[in-house]
Amino acid sequence: MRSNRIRTTALAATALLAALSLTACNGEDSAAGPTASTPSAASAGAGTDQQAPAKDDSKDGGEEAATGTASGSGTNSGSGSGSGSSAPDAKAPGTKTPTSNSRSTDTSCNASNTKLTLTPVSRPINYMLLTVTNTGSKNCDAYYYPALRFGEAQSVPPAFEDSKPQAVVTIAPGESAYAGVLTSSADGSGTGGYSTKDLSVSFAGKGGISDGTGAPAVVPLSKSVYVDSTLRVTYWQRDMADALN
User: Fold this and answer.
1) How many angstroms separate the Cα of 24 from the Cα of each of 36, 119, 218?
2) Contact indicator for 230, 190 with CB cutoff of 8 Å
3) Structural domain boundaries, residue 206
4) Is the model's pLDDT at 136 over the cut of 80?
């Protein structure tokens, strides 16, 4: 009987200790609960940012734009003093870029580098053929048309404007160019006619007939030539047929 009481007492003590232990654990969990639910420092920071006044982005944007403008004059390839790859190469002082019209081996035809002859032709009527031959050692350019003076003429005859070639006639050494000369009218409509054995020819320069290329060339004539007010001349031509067309 006594042993049963002792056993019962021991069991009751064990149950009491277990109950006390469970109560203590629940108390610790309750104390730890609020601590776990307390916002962390990062969460607290985020909450503070949300409540802070909005930042003025327009001011920062202006500052960024100003900074971008300042950096534009750096080493970018755009405008400014940059050293980008698109910048042209610097040329040495005094260097000249040759143009596509540069013809260093050519010169204007003149009395010293050519030979002139005037010969009659059967067709057209009252025409003669003026031939210029390059006697020099390099090409020469025959500009516009020959300026003719028969005898004591005070002016040179006009040209047939429809005979103007598309390009300047360049004559190589030993080669020739041509001009047709209408000396007088076939129907007698010309005035102030006269006969002469004297003929001089001046060469035009790049600027025209008034831009001569030196002294005129004297052309020998085997017989007198009759000229009147209808005297005309063609532009220099590469082909003889074009000069007499």
Assistant:
1) 19, 143, 141
2) yes
3) 107-243
4) yes
- In this structure, which amino acid lies at residue 78? G
- Whether 243 and 234 have beta carbons less than 8 Å apart is answered as yes
Sign of the torsion angle spanned by Cα atoms 26, 28, 29, 34 = positive
Nearest to residue 148, comparing CAs of 32, 73, 234? 234
Q: Which two tokens stand for residue 115?
A: 């030979």
* Number of domains making up the chain: 1
SS3 67: helix
pTM above threshold 0.70 = no
Could you give phi then psi for residue 67, rounded to 5 degrees?
Answer: -65, -40
| Residue at 25 is within a domain | no
pLDDT digit string (tens) for 39-81?
A: 443 333 344 444 444 444 444 444 443 344 434 444 444 444 4
Whether 189 is in a domain gets the answer: yes
